[in-house]
Design a protein that fits this description.
The complex is a heterodimer of chains A (431) and B (142). Helix content of chain A is 30%, strand content 17%. By secondary structure, chain A is α/β, with parallel strands linked by helices. Chain A has a domain at 23-157 and 258-273: 3-Layer(aba) Sandwich (Peroxisomal Thiolase, Chain A, domain 1), CATH 3.40.47.10. In chain A, the strands form two sheets. A nine-stranded mixed sheet of chain A has the order 3-2-4-8-1-9-12-11-10, with helices on both faces. In chain A, strands 6-7 form a two-stranded antiparallel ribbon. Chain B starts with 10 loop residues before the first strand and ends with a strand. The chains are: A alpha/beta (431), B mainly beta (142).
């Protein structure tokens, strides 16, 4: 790794991934999930939940603490604010580390990990971070990496305590967006692109209802999910069509709900994976997009080309093609952009402009087109990790009531947006 | 201040790269970076041309200030403090007639919220922000 981004596979023409089938995911752990941290229960803080997820992942893999020699995480937890100026707690909760993020050093210390030789606390969000982890193991920076991704949600209305949203000034790139009310994150640009999509293909917001309802259904079949635990009821079409408008036409049910939780995964070499508890799920490739559009707002055409390029990179590096992908879990962080992934990867033959018709077909997990069998982030709460954990479970055959009835040999999962993301191609077989 | 009641726009903070742009706004002129090698406009300002990759051929070029409304939405629940007392408020994307690949944001002062004539021509105006810095805005041509 010559630079912080040199590991990325974000260009076309790189050929087959050099570590194809030589890296495997062998463990997964999901912590408890709450809507927000209560500010009191330290075992449900970011650090507490991270410890829970990591220990579960290590146990799931059948490994011991001494087997872990790599630690990888991201500080991009979407906390949107610091815990300060509220008072800190006794150690180890006496800084932001452990409260609004959990660093590799913190986990190394708290779990007493003795054999760590590779620590990375500044990985990007989970989409590209999963690719970074696969590359790190493949490159030999470590043999067995513990990889975790917390999502933090503190008290208060989401984003309203973000200092950038409460300033009289708009510095840096925000000078060209904030004075007109553009909000950072994926919402605004992708909503504009959704409007362009509807205009171009003659579609409307109602066309997302079937996807929304099916995601909630899948989420309710995920025992650990926010909705299964805290709001265990199915949405109706009327609920969706009459949902509270956030930014017209986006309604509350198009938005993945911020939650407080952590997921962890274990990556290791295919060789080391041979005698572990779980059947290995091999990584066939990772690919990323990191571009942006030409001007202030990216356009539909730019996002479509971005996903088409991502697909070409994924096919090139994995040696697979659209017909080879059994499980498909792309990001649904706003329902308004998921269709770009579906159409760009041409999953089950879906072409540009056809996603809403596909949603209206049978996309249930027991049906012929089990799209987003994870329930996505709309169905489970905004963990983002659910996209990967469901893929793992489907390939292991342990997804319980969500287990698809179609073939489940390969899985493609990733996030976040069409123009900025990281995806993994997973397989039951190393080649 | 803005002509939209209740709106307090955050004020852009110029830096070395963007200062000519914001200074021109204060003179009620809209200038964009133009790569004289590629004859390609850039907005927002960039460090280098996205086509030839060079930073050596940028010149500031004044544009006419005519555009069209591409799409719009309505902000009803803003996280940005200065917008909360102005919502619901229009949020539109404007394409520049001289180069439709360039787009701008607009709250369309003078257009009733939710009654945006998509596809209509717009013209350049300027509005004051919280810091006194002027920003470029667009209004429907009547």
């Amino acid at each position: 790794m010559v630079s912080n981004t040199g590991w990325m596979r974000d260009q076309e023409g790189l050929g087959l991934w050099e570590h194809r089938g030589k890296v495997a995911v062998v463990g997964w752990g999901q912590s408890h999930i709450d809507r927000r941290w209560d500010g009191v229960s330290l075992d449900r803080s970011c650090g507490g939940l991270t410890k829970e997820a990591c220990l579960k992942a290590i146990a799931d893999a059948g490994l011991s603490l001494d087997d872990i020699d790599g630690l990888i995480t991201s500080a991009e937890t979407r906390a949107e604010q610091t815990w300060a100026p509220r008072p800190y707690f006794d150690p180890p909760y006496d800084t932001e580390d452990g409260l609004t993020f959990t660093s590799a050093d913190w986990i190394q210390r708290e779990l007493g990990l003795k054999n760590v030789q590779y620590l990375k606390s500044d990985a990007p969000y989970i989409g590209p971070m999963m690719g970074l982890a696969a590359q790190a193991v493949g490159d030999g920076l470590c043999e067995t990496a513990l990889v975790w991704y917390p999502m933090v949600n503190l008290a208060g209305r989401y984003g309203h305590n973000n200092p950038a949203n409460n300033s009289e000034e708009a510095p840096g790139p925000s000078a060209f967006t904030l004075p007109w009310g553009y909000q950072s994150g994926a919402m605004f640009n992708n909503l504009v692109i959704f409007q362009q999509y509807c205009k171009k293909y003659g579609k409307s917001h109602d066309g997302l209802a079937d996807l929304c309802l099916n995601l909630r259904r899948n989420g309710l079949m995920t025992p650990w999910s926010y909705y299964a635990l805290h709001e265990p009821y199915q949405l109706t079409r009327e609920d969706y069509l009459n949902g509270r408008v956030i930014e017209e036409p986006l309604v509350i049910y198009d938005c993945d709900r911020p939650v407080n939780t952590c997921a962890a995964f274990i990556f290791t070499t295919a060789e080391r994976a041979k005698d572990l508890r779980q059947k290995p799920v091999y990584v066939l490739n990772h690919a990323q997009n990191g571009g942006r559009g030409r001007s202030t707002m990216s356009t539909l055409e730019e996002h479509q080309e971005a996903v088409a390029s991502l697909a070409r990179k994924m096919w090139e590096g994995s040696g697979l093609g659209p017909d080879d992908v059994d499980i498909f879990n792309p990001y649904d962080g706003y329902l308004t952009f998921t269709q770009q992934f579906l159409e760009g990867f041409q999953w089950h033959g879906v072409k540009w402009g056809e996603a809403h018709d596909f949603y209206a077909d049978d996309i249930r997990v027991e049906g012929p087109h089990p799209f987003l069998s994870s329930g996505g982030n709309n169905g489970t709460g905004r963990t983002r990790a659910c996209l990967f954990s469901d893929s793992l479970e489907q390939l292991r055959g342990t997804a319980g009531p969500r287990q698809v009835t179609t073939r489940a040999d390969t899985a493609l999962a990733g996030c976040n947006t069409p123009d900025s993301n990281g995806f993994l191609m997973l397989s039951k077989h190393p080649s | 201040m803005s002509t939209i009641p209740g709106l307090e726009r955050p004020g852009p903070v110029p830096n070395d790269m963007t200062r000519p742009f914001w200074d021109a706004c204060n003179e009620r002129r809209l200038v964009l970076q133009n790569c004289t090698s590629c004859q390609r406009l850039h907005y927002p300002p960039a460090q280098r041309c996205d086509q030839c990759g060079s930073a050596d051929n940028f010149q500031w070029k004044e544009v006419e200030g005519k555009g069209h409304i591409d799409v719009y939405m309505v902000i009803r629940d803003s996280r940005i403090r200065g917008f909360r007392s102005a919502q619901p408020i229009n949020f539109a994307v404007i394409t520049l007639d001289e180069d439709p690949g360039i787009n701008f944001l607009s709250n369309l002062p003078g257009t009733p919220t939710g009654e945006v004539p998509v596809g209509a021509p717009v013209e350049l105006i300027f509005e004051e922000t919280s810091t006194g810095q002027l920003v470029h805005e667009w209004q429907v041509v009547t």
